[in-house]
Write a structure and sequence with these properties.
It is built from 17 helices and 13 strands. It is α/β, with parallel strands linked by helices. The protein has a seven-stranded mixed sheet with strand order 3-12-11-10-13-5-4, sandwiched between helices. Strand 7, helix 8 and strand 8 form a beta-alpha-beta unit. Helix 3 packs across helix 10 and helix 4 crosses helix 14.
Amino acid sequence: MDNLIAGKTLTEWKTEHPELETIIRAEEIFWVNPAFSSTVGRVISDELSLADIDDAEQRLRKFAPYIAKAFPETAAAGGLIDSELVPIPAMCKCLDGLYGCEISGRLYLKKDSHLPISGSVKARGGIYEILKTAEEVGMKEGLLKPGDDYIVFDSPEMKELLSGYSIVVGSTGNLGLSIGIMSARLGFRVVVHMSSDAKQWKKDMLRAKGAEVVEHSGDYGLAVASGRREAESDPNSHFVDDENSKTLFLGYAVAAKRLERQLSDMNITVDGDHPLFVYLPCGVGGAPGGITFGLRTVFGDAVHPIFAEPTHSPAMLLGLLTGRHSEVSVNDFGLDNVTAADGLAVGRPSGFVGRTLVKDIAGAYTVSDQELYRLLSILADQENIFLEPSALAGFPGPWHLCRSEAGRDYIRKCDLESKLSQATHIAWATGGGMVPEAIMKAFYNQGRAA
């Protein structure tokens, strides 16, 4: 007899959702979310709104003078943490040939892979949560008052104060880097619990920056649980909860406001006749979820967010498909959660993200490790841009829309056939800017051999 998975047997789940057969075989699939619906006449979240995104953006602006001083690489941008949006026509042409169909519209790369400070998308949410926590401590202890210049966070007195507080996080790698680097620079004691998937160079970098790294033999879920337990035992400790943090979520959501300005500066129109497709690599869901919340809040029905996951770790896809979100894991369906895409090696999705955005995630697809490596080498050859494997997950998305039956059905259902020539496609690159040269070379060689 089948074991029960969230109240049903595997046979019952497969009968209800035949596409599970493909997912369970760890084969690539494109899935359209039947719950995806218009933003007109409804609020995306009962708890968060555009005002909350604006508040987060304002807080980041207050901290900008401190960021510019503490991290000189941000000085030219005035202490704001953002990335380039670049056209990648050579890559697009190459993938048209590789995948056997030409996409309509223009393809761009959002280079969060090269965000300053920590070189990944996690520099958005992770750093924002640490800054907000520092602000709260400063206000509570009287070293920061309304109207103060936030450059005060570079003072010896503030660093001494923050050294009495701890930051704790569980991570597969990139979130740990952003939390560790920012927390240590502010003066916090910082402990990063890292899963077995985490790359050694990320652990080494964290230790070099002053973070304490606790290594676990288990996966992401174990690292998070261990971090949470540690933080609960200390009243002066703050746990960064990648699965449920609304603060983290809002830090990522600010990206949509900045993208709106970026697109405007580039004279790229986004509206009902000029659709925007955004392809977001997904692990537990915090970063793509926050970005999606921001995108749908800013652009409404004109944007179509699509998540991308490894074939062996399709946690969010399974959560959305079953409707059970964090009640199910990839292991329940016989998948091993083993992938070279370390940032996406998550077995159980965020229930908060899945439930909040069940009507705002257009769909999801999976990509094999072999394909990630192949895309990595192609991008390097065609555009001289180097990413880590997980950051390539967004690239196959546009071609799923034009060559898969599910993708073509989605285009028809949304009445987009006549508008695709005016579409903008953005592959969101999530990491790679800090990968050591020797390791990146090994990634590249593996891709060339794929």
